[in-house]
Design brief:
Layout: H1 3-10, H2 19-83, H3 93-106, E1 114-119, E2 124-127, H4 144-152, E3 156-157, E4 161-162, E5 170-179, E6 185-194, E7 212-216, E8 222-226, E9 249-255, E10 261-268, E11 275-281, H5 282-285, H6 287-333, H7 347-382, E12 388-392, E13 398-401, H8 403-409, H9 413-417, H10 430-443, E14 449-458, E15 464-476, E16 479-488, H11 490-541, H12 548-574, E17 583-586, H13 587-602, E18 606-611, E19 618-621, H14 623-639, E20 645-656, E21 669-678, H15 685-688, H16 708-718, E22 722-727, E23 733-742, H17 749-753, E24 763-767, H18 771-783, E25 787-791, H19 794-803, E26 809-813, H20 821-831, E27 836-841, H21 845-850, E28 860-862, H22 867-878
Parallel strand pairs: 18-20, 24-25, 24-26, 26-27, 27-28
Antiparallel strand pairs: 1-2, 1-6, 3-5, 4-5, 5-6, 7-8, 7-11, 9-10, 10-11, 12-13, 12-16, 14-15, 15-16, 17-19, 19-23, 20-21, 21-23, 22-23
Helix pairs in contact: 2-6, 11-12, 11-18, 12-16, 13-14, 14-16, 18-22, 19-20
């Protein structure tokens, strides 16, 4: 055959349509006009359905907007009415509280949740909240709605915020300025509305299935979402923020949260400026159109199926035998080795069909045997849920892995095949791995399973997991290999470590509690003894005729007692047991007042530097305790610089943001910071973890008690503050004390010291079970002119009070056997409500509070005290404007 003819016969040509193809083409040509008509009708129905759905959605949006306007008008009308009734002067706070409480309880629960009145400075002068909150925390001067009401003198609406009582609830505040006769804003009436009530505006609104309503403010913050979407409240959706002026309603297509197409209409509530969005799934809007189209398509499909069925039937009778044999051949090629050709065919094809069947039977037998072998391998290796890997004994090269290994380590099979077992381990464990594998190879026989212990394996993403590895030595393709399985024990090991750490923390907490109880027990008896010593020394020193030698002896005794009182205070401070009197203090004033003393205390070999911020605000703390914090930190710094150095004290004001890396571990908020830095020896990490433990010290036993930094930590913690330390061996240390700022003016510390106590001629009932304390208190008060009736316990005091109804003041110890001080005061208050009470206590604050007496509620004198201190407190209690007998 010529070459040109060979090319022509072997070149593939386009196959003409078969008989069935021609029949199918004819059917499609007939049905095409019918399909085009269905498409045109569908489009017309869709346009009409969209217009109807848009109109209904916009109607619903306007209905909801009208209801929101009604609610807003109601709240604003209520606040406008209250603005004419509240009082802004200081004496009107109680009247305002009563008025707002009555108004709030007469309103439905969904009307307003709370009512407030704040003066023009932002301070609260009235509230409906019960019990009454801390008014100092109820300032609103930094709130936008408050500033807007002051500036515009018009009603305003605030942004949505979470409520303090339940952070899962959101509320919005309406503000109404209270104008004076001169037209100036004297106060602002506030009403908080629970945003859950906005959902009530959705009730009785009929929406298509799957539709929802969303109410947002001008910034796009969600105020309500219905009919079932409380979790949406508070989200910021920038795409729903208010557009430019003039756009009060619109309709358009948007994508829903899941990406489904939706039809959305919106309008704006005129009273609040809030926008109401109504969203209807397009599937719902076009439901009727879809049903109509479905009917048309079903009819077209039935017609097409009937026509195609006839075409296929006619064509099948013509080419069925040939197609059946071709189908059998394709099935065999695709892996169906059970397929056999039918021999009930024309004689010309019967011999070919029989040969085809013999070939299929041979392939089926061989494939079945191969499949069984492969299935065993998959069951043993691939289907294992734990990571399995086969490695070469000599090179440790990974040969095979299962799917679980790829999923565990993050590599593909090809990437793992390029690695060795050493690559899966950190560098510090590779020498150990080589030693263990050599030992296992010598000691381990074939098919003997061994545990190699717990290892650290590195994943592809760099993370490290702890795994326990089991191996077995076997053969693969004629060479020794090691089959290993790894079990991830990271979670188990982490849980074990966490359990151990929690047990250590529990032991430390129990130790601290035991020390605190021990300190409290010491304080009771020791403070009573010190009160007697100090009192008798002061009485003796007040005698002008006392010889100078004797006066010096009494002064030495008094100084020793004062030092003992200071030591007791330090012990009680670290156990948080000292009775404290927190006041508003300026941190700079405290540091300034201590600098002369600090300069003498640290010595001439250390230079004292200070850098105080222009303003640090005020903090709420006990002045004596705060001075003790500065003194202890300075002493600690002095001891860290035996050869001299620089001690610097700085103050500053900081605003800590959430998760601020510059102030790690400090909660967000406004803080006044006291920092003490030295250039001393510094501390290592292990020492820093224990420096705040009581009785832990690195100094010689004769130079330190281990209570200095423990006292600092306890005082700062008790004041709501935080202590942070940064130190490096050889580079000094820095202690930073963070104290929360308060919005209150600093108290005059000089005024607190007072002058010479003034006496009186009133009658005082003294109740004290300690003889020495009772005697010194009686003598001190008698010398000041008071008439003193003494009793050693509660029953004796009750009997004395019945015989002497003229008693003006009850001076009683808190902790006494039988009837304690609080119970005694309550009994006397029932018989004489105007009786004034002054409590004494040498116990820790926790014990005093346990017995129902708090220094914040009643007059409380802490032991040990001097006669002058006693007389000053007695005079102060007698001169109080209100009785102090009611302690319940």
């Amino acid at each position: 055959m010529p070459e040109s003819q060979l090319d022509a016969t072997s070149r593939p040509t386009a196959a003409p349509l078969g008989i069935r193809g021609l029949l199918v083409t004819l059917v499609c040509a007939v049905i095409a006009p019918f399909v085009l008509g269905i498409a045109l009708r569908t489009r017309a129905l869709a346009d009409a359905a969209r217009q109807d759905a848009a109109r209904r959605a916009l109607d619903v949006a306007r209905l909801v907007a009208d209801r929101l306007d009604d609610r807003a008008h109601n709240v604003q009308t209520l606040l406008a009415a209250l603005a004419h009734q509240v009082r802004v002067d200081a004496a009107g706070t109680v009247t305002n509280d009563s008025l707002l409480d009555v108004v709030r309880h007469d309103l439905p629960a969904e009307y307003v949740t709370s009512l407030w009145v704040n003066d023009a400075s932002g301070a609260n002068v009235g509230t409906s909240v019960r019990p009454l909150p801390d008014r100092s925390r109820a300032r609103v001067s930094d709130r936008r709605y408050f500033r807007e009401a002051l500036r515009t003198r018009r009603p305003t609406i605030g942004d949505p915020v979470r409520t303090h009582a339940d952070t899962s609830r959101w509320s919005v505040t309406f503000a109404q300025p209270v104008l004076g006769d001169d037209g100036r804003v004297r106060a602002v009436a506030l009403g908080s509305v629970d945003l859950r009530t906005i959902g009530q505006a959705f009730h009785a609104v009929r929406l298509p299935a799957g539709s929802d309503i969303t109410v947002v403010d001008a910034t796009g913050t969600v105020l309500g979402h219905g009919p079932d979407g409380a979790g949406w409240v508070g989200r910021r959706i920038s795409s729903l923020a208010a557009p430019g002026a003039g756009h009060t309603f619109d309709v358009g297509d948007v994508a829903g949260p899941g990406g489904e197409p939706r039809l959305t209409a919106y309008t704006t509530a005129t009273a609040t400026g809030w926008r109401v969005y109504v969203s209807v799934p397009r599937a719902v809007a076009y439901a009727e159109v879809r049903r109509a189209v479905a009917r048309d398509v079903l009819l077209a499909a039935a017609t097409l199926a009937l026509a195609l069925g006839l075409a296929v039937t006619v064509g099948g009778r013509i080419v069925a035998p040939i197609d059946a044999l071709a189908s059998d051949a394709k099935a065999l090629a695709a892996g169906d080795y059970t397929r056999r050709a039918s021999t009930h065919v024309p004689r010309e094809l019967a011999t070919f069909a029989a040969t085809f069947n013999d070939m299929a039977a041979t392939i089926d037998a061989r494939t079945t045997a191969l499949h069984r072998t492969e299935q065993r391998y998959r069951l043993l290796f691939e289907a294992c849920p734990l990571p399995l890997y086969l490695s070469d004994v000599e090179t440790h090269r990974i040969l095979l892995v299962n799917d679980a290994a790829c999923a565990e380590y993050g590599y593909t099979r090809e990437e793992l095949a390029a690695l060795t077992l050493l690559d899966l381990r950190p560098a510090e464990q590779r020498l150990r791995f080589l030693a263990v594998t050599r030992a296992l190879t010598k000691a381990q026989g074939l098919q003997v399973r061994s545990s190699t212990g717990v290892w650290r394996h590195r994943h592809k993403d760099g993370s490290v997991a702890e795994v326990e590895v089991f191996t077995v030595l076997t053969e693969f393709e004629g060479r020794p290999v090691r089959l290993s399985v790894s079990l991830d024990v990271t979670a188990r090991r982490r849980a074990e470590r966490a359990l151990q750490e929690s047990q250590d923390q529990l032991r430390r907490a129990q130790k601290m509690e035991a020390l605190g109880r021990f300190a409290g027990g010491i304080a009771h008896d020791f403070n009573n003894l010190l009160t007697g010593i100090l009192g008798y020394c002061d009485l003796a020193l007040s005698d002008s005729g006392l010889p100078s030698e004797t006066r010096e002896d009494f002064s030495a005794i008094r100084d020793a007692a004062q030092r003992a009182a200071g030591l007791t205070g330090r012990i009680l401070a670290f156990s948080r047991g000292r009775v404290v009197q927190p006041v508003a203090l300026d941190l700079n004033d405290v540091v300034d007042g201590l600098q002369p003393m600090l300069a003498r205390m640290i010595g001439e070999h250390i230079r004292l530097e200070s850098e105080l911020a222009p303003s640090t605000g005020t903090v709420l703390a006990d002045s004596g305790q705060l001075e003790q914090v500065v003194m202890n930190l300075a002493l600690n710094a002095r001891d860290a610089m035996p050869a001299g150095g620089v001690l610097s004290i700085t103050t500053s004001e900081v605003e800590v943001e959430p998760d601020d890396p510059r102030h790690e571990g400090v909660p967000s908020g406004r803080w006044a910071v006291l920092a003490v830095r030295d250039t001393g020896v510094g501390m290592d990490a292990d020492t820093q973890t224990r420096i705040f433990e009581p009785f832990f010290t690195t100094k010689e036993r004769s130079r330190g008690t281990g209570l200095g930094l423990a006292t600092v930590y306890a005082i700062v913690q008790g004041s709501g503050g935080v202590v942070r330390v940064c130190s490096t061996p050889g580079a000094g240390s820095r202690f930073a004390v963070y104290l929360p700022r308060v919005d209150a003016p600093a108290e005059d510390r000089g005024a607190r010291s007072g002058g010479v106590p003034v006496g009186g001629n009133e009658t005082v009932l003294l109740v004290e079970d300690e003889d020495a304390v009772r005697a010194i208190a009686r003598e001190a008060l008698t010398r000041r002119g008071y008439r003193v009736l003494a009793a050693a316990d509660g029953p004796a005091a009750i009997e004395t009070a019945r015989r002497h109804p003229e008693i003006d003041l009850l001076l009683t110890d808190v902790v006494m056997p039988g009837i304690n001080g609080r119970e005694l005061a309550e009994l006397r208050a029932r018989e004489r409500p105007t009786l004034k009470v002054l409590f004494m206590s040498g116990y820790t604050e926790d014990e005093v509070l346990h017995r129902g007496v708090s220094s914040d509620e009643v007059a409380l004198l802490a032991k040990p005290f001097t006669p002058d201190t006693l007389c000053a407190e007695v005079r102060s209690a007698l001169d109080a404007l209100h009785p102090t007998a009611t302690v319940a």
